[in-house]
Amino acid sequence: MKILVINAGSSSCKYQLLEMDTRSVLCSGLAERIGQEGGRLTHKIAPDTDKEEKLVREAFFPTHVEAMELVIALLTDADKGVIKDKSEIYAIGHRVLHGGEAVSDPVLVNERVKQIVEECAVLGPLHNPANLMGIEVAEKLFPGVPNVAVFDTEFGMGMPKEAFMYALPYELYEELRIRRYGFHGTSHKYIANATAEFLGKPLSELRSITMHLGNGSSMSCVKNGKCFDTSMGLTPLEGLVMGTRCGTIDPAIVPFVMEKKGLSPSEADTLMNKKSGLLGLCGYTDMRDVHAQVDKGNERAELALKLLVRSIKKTLGSYFFLLEGNVDALVFTAGIGENDDIVRAMVCEGLEAFGIKLNKEENSTRKPGARIITTPDSKIPVIIIPTNEELQIALATVEVLKK
């Protein structure tokens, strides 16, 4: 059974074609600069294997339709294709940011679901319109093939009410559904399942803390296999210090800066989402650049690194207490979590009092797959587990169709 996974952005489109019988990736790719000059499609056959082959096509894509038409041509190419005909694709799974409270579980797309995605664009103005566009393009190019929407907010919707509510007038929740939703849910759900499997423990008994650290970062507190708390809120802005997002700040800063700098609400939103975080502190968003600047004595880069780690440790501590100290594992995942041994070491520094002992050699060594980076006598294991959001979306798609 072949499942195509699509993650459509406003000017880009990521995709993977998976063979679900073996859970292998047949191909993956990224179309960039859609609607702009200098469009490019990078297509990988058998990615992340010793047989990987990369094809690059440069072209102008007026819309997502033209980009996906080229994807189909590459999928079915006589020499390089991985399928003979697009009819081999059983279903298409779509990453969708926000379904509000109306829909969060993976669902077969129909007109009502598309309407909900459109209505929730006010909560996800950058993502929801693009996600909806990806669905409509798939409907046009793959007529008759079922489309399944998998929502980024799904995992966080399992939180208890005292975790997702804000201490604002209750009417704001009733009228505008202002609450904590949580994001990176597909990743957090995948990691919860993978952690339980790695530990040989039933998911229903898992108590863990996941650190999804990348350009966008979030953490989840998992109790009995479900999300008990999460760091992101109404939008992906709340929580940890991120590449360009400020994370949690005193909310009074927003009107203060708007008044002093003469900013509109849209400009203030851009300031916090796209000009803050590591970028705002030191001018860099890639942690490799931040570390290089720290080595050169750049004090602002060092400050940015310390703020990032501090935000992680503060959240880690709060989740540790929410779980009453009964924690099966701490898990690092995503770009920084999987690859940055310096950040991991800084996060784990000082945790010996809780019986967490980092194996420095194991932490600094790069290896594929899931692995423990603490010593054998550590009371709580710290684990690196590579995330796989596309596989989680494909699995969810199959489950929806089975129902």
TrEMBL record:
Keywords: ATP-binding, Kinase, Nucleotide-binding, Transferase. One of its GO terms (molecular function) is acetate kinase activity. SUPFAM superfamilies: Actin-like ATPase domain. GO terms for biological process: acetate metabolic process. InterPro entries: Ac/propionate_kinase, Aliphatic_acid_kin_short-chain, Aliphatic_acid_kinase_CS, ATPase_NBD. Pfam families: Acetate_kinase. Its EC number is 2.7.2.1. Gene3D superfamilies: 3.30.420.40. PANTHER family: ACETATE KINASE, ACETATE KINASE-RELATED. This is Acetate kinase.
